[in-house]
# Entry
Amino acid sequence: MTEHRYIWCRNCNEIHHVTPFDRAPGYRMNLGEETELPMDDRGAFMRRHSGHRLEGLQGVGERYFPEGQALDPMRVGYVEVTNGKESFVVRSFRNRIEDPLHFELLRGRLKAVGTTASIQENEIRKEMKHHYPWRPSERPDDEKIELFVRLFNEVVRGMDPRQIELCGYDDTASSVAYGVLSSAIVEKLMQECRNHFDQETLSGLRRFIDAHRDQDGVMTLRIVRRYAIEESGE
Ligand SMILES: [Zn+2]
# Structure
Protein backbone atom coordinates (compact mmCIF):
# COMPACT_ATOMS: atom_id res chain seq x y z
CA MET A 1 0.00 0.00 0.00
CA THR A 2 1.27 3.48 -0.81
CA GLU A 3 2.18 5.53 2.18
CA HIS A 4 0.30 8.80 2.37
CA ARG A 5 2.43 11.69 3.51
CA TYR A 6 1.82 15.36 2.89
CA ILE A 7 3.30 18.72 3.82
CA TRP A 8 0.77 21.35 4.77
CA CYS A 9 1.46 25.07 4.78
CA ARG A 10 -0.84 26.48 7.44
CA ASN A 11 -0.27 30.05 6.27
CA CYS A 12 -1.39 29.45 2.68
CA ASN A 13 -3.48 26.32 3.30
CA GLU A 14 -1.62 24.52 0.50
CA ILE A 15 -0.81 20.83 0.43
CA HIS A 16 2.14 19.02 -1.10
CA HIS A 17 1.95 15.25 -1.59
CA VAL A 18 5.27 13.64 -0.66
CA THR A 19 6.07 10.91 -3.19
CA PRO A 20 9.17 8.95 -4.18
CA PHE A 21 8.97 10.71 -7.57
CA ASP A 22 9.24 14.17 -6.02
CA ARG A 23 12.79 14.73 -7.13
CA ALA A 24 12.85 12.75 -10.35
CA PRO A 25 13.02 14.82 -13.53
CA GLY A 26 9.90 14.70 -15.68
CA TYR A 27 9.69 14.47 -19.44
CA ARG A 28 7.13 15.92 -21.74
CA MET A 29 6.63 15.27 -25.43
CA ASN A 30 6.34 18.61 -27.15
CA LEU A 31 5.73 18.51 -30.92
CA GLY A 32 7.57 15.21 -31.11
CA GLU A 33 10.49 16.47 -29.05
CA GLU A 34 11.16 15.29 -25.56
CA THR A 35 11.96 18.09 -23.15
CA GLU A 36 13.10 17.59 -19.60
CA LEU A 37 11.08 19.45 -17.00
CA PRO A 38 12.59 20.67 -13.77
CA MET A 39 10.46 18.55 -11.46
CA ASP A 40 11.83 19.10 -7.98
CA ASP A 41 8.29 19.55 -6.68
CA ARG A 42 9.16 19.27 -3.04
CA GLY A 43 12.04 21.74 -3.33
CA ALA A 44 9.79 24.20 -5.17
CA PHE A 45 7.10 23.86 -2.50
CA MET A 46 9.59 24.37 0.33
CA ARG A 47 11.04 27.46 -1.37
CA ARG A 48 7.62 28.95 -2.05
CA HIS A 49 6.64 28.52 1.59
CA SER A 50 9.94 29.24 3.30
CA GLY A 51 9.40 30.92 6.66
CA HIS A 52 5.78 29.70 6.73
CA ARG A 53 4.30 27.35 9.28
CA LEU A 54 4.71 23.88 7.73
CA GLU A 55 3.30 20.72 9.19
CA GLY A 56 3.69 17.06 8.23
CA LEU A 57 0.51 15.03 7.74
CA GLN A 58 0.46 11.25 7.83
CA GLY A 59 -2.20 8.91 6.44
CA VAL A 60 -4.04 6.84 9.06
CA GLY A 61 -5.07 4.04 6.71
CA GLU A 62 -8.60 5.06 5.70
CA ARG A 63 -9.02 6.15 2.12
CA TYR A 64 -11.94 6.24 -0.17
CA PHE A 65 -12.60 6.61 -3.88
CA PRO A 66 -16.36 7.15 -4.21
CA GLU A 67 -16.51 6.39 -7.91
CA GLY A 68 -14.22 5.15 -10.61
CA GLN A 69 -11.13 3.04 -10.40
CA ALA A 70 -8.21 4.21 -8.30
CA LEU A 71 -6.23 4.41 -11.54
CA ASP A 72 -8.78 6.65 -13.25
CA PRO A 73 -6.97 10.00 -13.55
CA MET A 74 -10.19 11.97 -13.02
CA ARG A 75 -11.30 10.19 -9.89
CA VAL A 76 -11.75 12.06 -6.63
CA GLY A 77 -10.01 10.54 -3.62
CA TYR A 78 -10.23 11.05 0.10
CA VAL A 79 -7.47 10.12 2.54
CA GLU A 80 -7.74 10.53 6.28
CA VAL A 81 -4.58 12.06 7.77
CA THR A 82 -3.35 13.40 11.08
CA ASN A 83 -0.71 15.85 12.25
CA GLY A 84 -0.51 13.90 15.51
CA LYS A 85 -3.17 15.97 17.24
CA GLU A 86 -6.04 16.67 14.85
CA SER A 87 -7.72 14.68 12.08
CA PHE A 88 -8.13 15.91 8.54
CA VAL A 89 -9.29 14.57 5.22
CA VAL A 90 -7.19 15.27 2.13
CA ARG A 91 -9.36 15.51 -0.97
CA SER A 92 -7.52 14.93 -4.24
CA PHE A 93 -8.87 15.76 -7.67
CA ARG A 94 -8.07 17.09 -11.13
CA ASN A 95 -9.99 19.84 -12.88
CA ARG A 96 -8.81 18.69 -16.30
CA ILE A 97 -7.16 15.42 -17.29
CA GLU A 98 -3.90 17.18 -18.24
CA ASP A 99 -3.64 19.04 -14.91
CA PRO A 100 -1.56 17.82 -11.99
CA LEU A 101 -3.44 16.34 -9.05
CA HIS A 102 -4.83 18.99 -6.70
CA PHE A 103 -5.08 18.56 -2.95
CA GLU A 104 -7.45 20.22 -0.56
CA LEU A 105 -7.56 19.87 3.22
CA LEU A 106 -10.86 19.39 5.05
CA ARG A 107 -11.17 19.34 8.81
CA GLY A 108 -12.77 16.12 9.95
CA ARG A 109 -12.51 12.40 9.44
CA LEU A 110 -13.78 9.61 7.22
CA LYS A 111 -16.65 7.77 8.80
CA ALA A 112 -17.83 4.39 7.51
CA VAL A 113 -21.54 4.68 6.77
CA GLY A 114 -22.38 1.39 5.16
CA THR A 115 -21.39 -1.46 2.91
CA THR A 116 -22.71 -2.57 -0.46
CA ALA A 117 -22.19 -5.86 -2.27
CA SER A 118 -22.34 -6.24 -6.02
CA ILE A 119 -21.51 -8.89 -8.59
CA GLN A 120 -18.64 -8.66 -11.08
CA GLU A 121 -20.96 -8.50 -14.08
CA ASN A 122 -18.46 -7.78 -16.82
CA GLU A 123 -15.90 -10.26 -15.55
CA ILE A 124 -18.57 -12.98 -15.39
CA ARG A 125 -19.70 -12.26 -18.97
CA LYS A 126 -16.13 -12.30 -20.23
CA GLU A 127 -15.28 -15.54 -18.43
CA MET A 128 -18.48 -17.24 -19.62
CA LYS A 129 -18.15 -16.13 -23.23
CA HIS A 130 -14.43 -16.40 -23.85
CA HIS A 131 -12.57 -18.48 -21.30
CA TYR A 132 -14.48 -21.12 -19.40
CA PRO A 133 -14.13 -24.62 -20.93
CA TRP A 134 -17.83 -25.52 -21.12
CA ARG A 135 -18.92 -29.02 -22.08
CA PRO A 136 -20.52 -28.43 -25.51
CA SER A 137 -24.04 -29.43 -24.42
CA GLU A 138 -23.88 -27.19 -21.34
CA ARG A 139 -22.61 -23.98 -22.93
CA PRO A 140 -25.09 -21.09 -22.41
CA ASP A 141 -25.72 -18.69 -25.29
CA ASP A 142 -25.58 -14.90 -24.85
CA GLU A 143 -29.25 -14.68 -23.93
CA LYS A 144 -28.85 -17.28 -21.18
CA ILE A 145 -25.74 -15.52 -19.89
CA GLU A 146 -27.67 -12.24 -19.59
CA LEU A 147 -30.49 -14.00 -17.77
CA PHE A 148 -28.00 -15.64 -15.37
CA VAL A 149 -26.37 -12.24 -14.66
CA ARG A 150 -29.79 -10.72 -13.96
CA LEU A 151 -30.79 -13.54 -11.58
CA PHE A 152 -27.46 -13.36 -9.79
CA ASN A 153 -27.84 -9.57 -9.39
CA GLU A 154 -31.30 -10.04 -7.88
CA VAL A 155 -30.12 -12.66 -5.39
CA VAL A 156 -27.20 -10.50 -4.21
CA ARG A 157 -29.37 -7.39 -3.93
CA GLY A 158 -31.51 -9.21 -1.39
CA MET A 159 -28.56 -10.04 0.88
CA ASP A 160 -27.10 -8.37 3.94
CA PRO A 161 -23.54 -7.43 2.86
CA ARG A 162 -22.30 -7.64 6.45
CA GLN A 163 -22.90 -11.40 6.39
CA ILE A 164 -20.40 -11.97 3.59
CA GLU A 165 -17.07 -13.57 4.42
CA LEU A 166 -14.17 -11.63 2.87
CA CYS A 167 -11.53 -13.40 0.76
CA GLY A 168 -9.40 -10.59 -0.67
CA TYR A 169 -8.75 -6.89 -1.00
CA ASP A 170 -8.33 -4.57 -3.92
CA ASP A 171 -4.70 -3.42 -4.16
CA THR A 172 -5.69 0.00 -5.36
CA ALA A 173 -8.44 0.97 -2.91
CA SER A 174 -8.75 -0.09 0.70
CA SER A 175 -12.50 0.56 0.59
CA VAL A 176 -12.96 -2.35 -1.84
CA ALA A 177 -12.83 -6.01 -0.84
CA TYR A 178 -14.01 -9.32 -2.27
CA GLY A 179 -16.36 -11.77 -0.59
CA VAL A 180 -16.82 -15.53 -0.86
CA LEU A 181 -20.01 -16.79 -2.43
CA SER A 182 -21.41 -18.83 0.48
CA SER A 183 -23.25 -22.14 0.01
CA ALA A 184 -26.45 -20.39 1.08
CA ILE A 185 -26.15 -17.85 -1.75
CA VAL A 186 -25.23 -20.57 -4.26
CA GLU A 187 -28.34 -22.54 -3.22
CA LYS A 188 -30.56 -19.50 -3.60
CA LEU A 189 -29.09 -18.70 -7.01
CA MET A 190 -29.51 -22.31 -8.21
CA GLN A 191 -33.11 -22.25 -7.03
CA GLU A 192 -33.78 -19.17 -9.18
CA CYS A 193 -31.95 -20.77 -12.12
CA ARG A 194 -34.09 -23.92 -11.91
CA ASN A 195 -37.11 -21.83 -12.91
CA HIS A 196 -35.44 -20.71 -16.12
CA PHE A 197 -32.88 -23.18 -17.45
CA ASP A 198 -32.91 -26.77 -18.72
CA GLN A 199 -31.09 -29.56 -16.90
CA GLU A 200 -27.91 -29.46 -18.97
CA THR A 201 -27.47 -25.69 -18.73
CA LEU A 202 -28.10 -25.99 -14.98
CA SER A 203 -25.34 -28.50 -14.43
CA GLY A 204 -22.97 -26.37 -16.52
CA LEU A 205 -23.85 -23.25 -14.51
CA ARG A 206 -23.36 -25.15 -11.26
CA ARG A 207 -19.89 -26.24 -12.37
CA PHE A 208 -19.10 -22.67 -13.42
CA ILE A 209 -20.21 -21.29 -10.04
CA ASP A 210 -18.17 -23.83 -8.07
CA ALA A 211 -15.06 -23.10 -10.13
CA HIS A 212 -15.22 -19.32 -9.51
CA ARG A 213 -16.75 -18.70 -6.08
CA ASP A 214 -13.68 -18.03 -3.96
CA GLN A 215 -10.17 -16.58 -4.02
CA ASP A 216 -9.99 -14.37 -7.12
CA GLY A 217 -12.87 -16.04 -8.96
CA VAL A 218 -15.31 -13.93 -10.97
CA MET A 219 -18.26 -15.15 -8.87
CA THR A 220 -16.86 -13.53 -5.71
CA LEU A 221 -18.71 -10.44 -4.62
CA ARG A 222 -17.36 -6.93 -4.78
CA ILE A 223 -17.79 -5.34 -1.36
CA VAL A 224 -17.53 -1.57 -1.18
CA ARG A 225 -17.44 0.33 2.06
CA ARG A 226 -19.04 3.76 1.80
CA TYR A 227 -17.75 6.71 3.76
CA ALA A 228 -18.98 10.12 4.66
CA ILE A 229 -16.78 13.01 5.68
CA GLU A 230 -17.63 14.00 9.20
CA GLU A 231 -16.48 17.60 9.31
CA SER A 232 -15.31 19.17 12.52
CA GLY A 233 -15.32 22.89 13.23
CA GLU A 234 -12.16 24.94 13.59
ZN1 LIG B 1 2.81 29.06 2.55
Remarks:
- The chain has five helices and eleven strands.
- Residues 142-157 form the longest helix (16 residues).
- Helices lie at 41-48, 121-131, 142-157, 183-194, 199-211.
